[in-house]
Structures are given as C-alpha cells and as structure tokens.
Amino acid sequence: MPFDVNCGVVGAEMHDIRDYAAEMVEKYNPRMVVLVGGENDFLASRPPREIVGLLRETVRTISHESLRQNAGSPLSRSGPVPIVFFGTKREPSTDAFHPFYEEYDVLCQKLADEEFPNLTFVKSDEIEDRSLFRWDGLHMNKDGYALWNRKLVPIALDKLAPDSREDFLNETFPGKSQIHESDNGYDQPPPPTVTTIREWSEYRAARAI
Questions:
Q1: What is the DSSP string of 58-127?
Q2: What is d(CA 169, CA 132) in angstroms, rounded to the nearest whole number?
Q3: Sign of torsion, CA 147 148 149 154?
Q4: DSSP state of 31
Q5: What percent of the chain is predicted at pLDDT more than 90?
C-alpha cells in the first residue's frame, strides 16, 4: 500500500522473519503488520506443521514487542498490533508443493482462529493464473500485487485504530487487476471517478456492495 514500509528479503524463510520481527517492530512501531511467508520453506523441505510453528513464534514476537513499544504511551493500543497473514498462492511453477500448501493454509487459519485474536489469515489460493505472475511463474507481477492490496483494504478498515484508519481512507485505491471476482467486492476494479479508498468505500456503501 502507499504508506507501507517493505521489510521483505528475497529468499527469506520463516525463521528469518521470526528472527528479525522484534527488530522491525522496534524500528517502525507499525500500525499494522502484513506478513507473507512460508512458501520458501517448502523449497527447504520443511513440513507444514514445522513452518506453522515458526509462524506462531513470529506472531507471538510481534505481538509482545508491539505491546512493549506502546506501554505507557498516551496513544497506547488496547491490545497487540493487528497482523494480517497472506496464505499461499498457487504459483504455476510449484505444482508439486500445492497439496502441502493446502495443509499449511488450513493450519494457518486454525492458528488465527484459536490462538491469536489480532491475527487475520487471508486465503490467496485463487491466485493461480499465469497472467498474475512474472516470467518465472513464481513471483507475482504488479497485477498480482494489486489483487493482494485490494484484499487488504477491507481488513485494514476494520482493524486499524480510528486515527490510522482516517489516514488510510485518504490513500490512493490500489490499481486494476486482471481478476474481477471476489467475495468482498474489493477485487473489482473501481470506476474511473474513484481515486481514494474513502471514495471507493462510499461508492460501495451507496450501492450496498
């Protein structure tokens, strides 16, 4: 999204994300954390349950550090920072891993449902069309990332604190993607007159989308 800080490292595995999590939270004191990870761990032959164990440690670290960062602040949150975790994509070049991806996504959803109220799991298994990936069939292109960004919009509006939500509403709505079907309407390309997230939310509300 336009106001984000990208802390990603190409080739990072879940243990790398876990090990840097506290440092990144301390450095940026984020209003929301968006996590993507796990797929590289399959290339390292880790089973789904082991990867989810590392994710659990990562979420716990981020949650604890965010509370420590804001302790005693007049703007202190009522709880740990919201965390959004995107599930696995179905990359055209990783067919052999897709059955394991499914098991992993189920376990990640269970982690969010049963252990961490501040964690939101977002399914991404419909991202499989080659047109959403670069030449290697592994990394998403700008259309794939635009779809991810639009999935994030309603979650951010729901989870962000009021002051942060107001800033978010004034951001530019994510660009057009080649996928036009979703269960929340935010994957639909906006009409030409809509330029901000606020305008898109008002457009949706007026039409009861």
A1: HHHHHHHHHHHHHTT-TT--SSSPPEEEE-----TT-GGGHHHHHHHHHHHHHHHHHT-TTEEEE--TT-
A2: 26
A3: positive
A4: S
A5: 52
Q: Per-residue pLDDT for 3 more than 60?
A: no
* Percent over 70 (pLDDT), the chain: 83
- Compute how many other C-beta atoms are within 10 angstroms of the C-beta atom of residue 139: 14
Whole-model pTM? 0.81
* Sequence letter at residue 180: H
Q: How far is CA 45 from the centre of its chain?
A: 24
Domains located in the chain, CATH noted? 14-171 (3.40.50.1110)
Q: Determine which helix (DSSP H) or strand (DSSP E) holds 155, and give its type and residue range.
A: helix 142-159
- Report the pLDDT value the prediction gives residue 56, as an integer from 0 to 100: 98
What is the C-alpha to C-alpha distance for residues 26 and 23, in angstroms, rounded to an integer? Answer: 5
